[in-house]
């Protein structure tokens, strides 16, 4: 399996997202410029210029026409995917950390960081079909959790919002009233900050990765813990195969702690686990720094990883991968 190395970012990667068709890959990094690539050959298609800070997150609409990005420059921007035009800018009083389109792309949830005395917040915005009618007002603003909310995504049928972050607690909120419906049990939950959260393709469960060196699989409606995956380093990114029962964890100790040793010691590989048996079944090496972002192509035949080293690595699986017998 020869990876395709995509060098388009000057700074560490923060997030990767495929579009629904799996032909485009969007990458965000600390260099202010989200980039779009062809997902089959890694060719760079274009960039989205306008942010003045690290871009933490992005999401793309179901028809691949709109992109939304959240940045440390205290804005979230809506873009035309094809032309790279800025359609609208949502301005906040603190950095925008996470963005997620609802099913149907009529709403977006955006989280903002604690900053200068402000607590973190979850904002729900209505997304207009006609960009000229787009307004900045929030439909709903949720405040509550201490510490940064690293990820917030829509639950089933857009009825709930699921958030997770530095305080290691996963919360489910009512998307209409803003009331908190459930939070994860501290006994079975993560012990350190949650870095990443990703839903399954069918939206029935989701996986979280944490600095406590584990990833956990949860039922999206009941918050029941289904599976636990343990590793020997902090987990920065998690993803699940849409095709096979595989879970991939990425991470590695902090780059500053490994500069004196050789790159194998930093354990910068994407590790594959059997989703059901929770056993490690393999790994993909390559990055020269911690892995910060992982994404599976919707067809399950390739995956991408983004690292602290500024590279995106695109891996198309060999046929052998699909014949793995556990």
Question: How would you portray this structure in words?
Answer:
This protein is mainly beta and 326 residues long. 1% of the residues lie in helices and 48% in strands. The protein contains 1 helix and 28 strands. It has one helix at 319-322, and strands spanning 4-7, 13-18, 24-29, 35-38, 44-47, 55-60, 66-71, 75-80, 86-91, 96-101, 107-112, 121-126, 138-143, 149-154, 160-165, 171-174, 180-183, 194-199, 205-210, 214-219, 225-230, 235-240, 246-251, 270-274, 280-284, 291-296, 302-307, 311-316. The strands form 7 sheets. Strands 1-28-27-26 form a 4-stranded antiparallel sheet, with no helix packed on it. A 4-stranded antiparallel sheet has the order 2-3-4-5, with no helix packed on it. Strands 6-7-8-9 form a 4-stranded antiparallel sheet, with no helix packed on it. A hairpin with a 5-residue loop joins strand 14 (149-154) and strand 15. The longest helix has 4 residues, at 319-322. The model has no long low-confidence stretch (mean pLDDT 93). Component of the eukaryotic translation initiation factor 3 (eIF-3) complex. Keywords: Cytoplasm, Initiation factor, Protein biosynthesis, Repeat, WD repeat.
């Amino acid at each position: 399996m020869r990876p395709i190395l995509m060098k388009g970012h000057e700074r560490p990667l923060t997030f990767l997202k495929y579009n629904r068709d799996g032909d485009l890959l969007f990458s965000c990094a600390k260099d202010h410029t989200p980039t779009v690539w062809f997902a089959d050959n890694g060719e760079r298609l274009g960039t989205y210029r306008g942010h003045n800070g690290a871009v933490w997150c992005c999401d793309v609409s179901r028809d691949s026409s709109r992109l939304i990005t959240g940045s440390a420059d205290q804005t979230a921007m809506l873009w035309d995917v094809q032309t790279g035009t800025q359609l609208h800018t949502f301005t906040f009083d603190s950095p925008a950390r996470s963005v997620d389109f609802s099913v149907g792309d009529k709403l977006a949830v955006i989280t903002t960081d604690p900053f200068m005395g402000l607590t973190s917040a979850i904002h729900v915005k209505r997304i207009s079909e006609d960009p000229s009618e787009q307004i900045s007002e929030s439909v709903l603003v949720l405040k509550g959790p201490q510490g940064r909310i690293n990820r917030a995504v829509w639950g089933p049928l857009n009825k709930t919002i699921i958030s997770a972050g530095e305080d290691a607690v996963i919360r489910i909120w009512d998307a209409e009233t803003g009331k908190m419906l459930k939070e994860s049990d501290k006994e079975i939950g993560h012990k350190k900050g949650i870095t990443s959260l990703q839903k399954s393709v069918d939206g029935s469960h989701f996986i979280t990765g944490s600095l406590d060196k584990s990833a956990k699989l949860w039922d999206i409606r009941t918050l029941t813990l289904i599976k636990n995956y343990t590793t020997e380093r902090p987990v920065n990114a998690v993803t699940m195969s849409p095709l096979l029962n595989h879970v991939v964890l990425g991470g590695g100790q902090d780059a500053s702690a490994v500069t004196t040793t050789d790159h194998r010691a930093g354990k910068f590989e994407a590790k594959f686990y059997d989703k059901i048996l929770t056993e490690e079944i393999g790994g993909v090496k390559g990055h020269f720094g911690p892995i910060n972002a992982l994404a599976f192509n919707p067809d399950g035949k390739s995956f991408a990883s983004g690292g602290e080293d500024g590279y995106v690595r695109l891996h198309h699986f060999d046929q052998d991968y699909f014949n793995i017998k556990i």
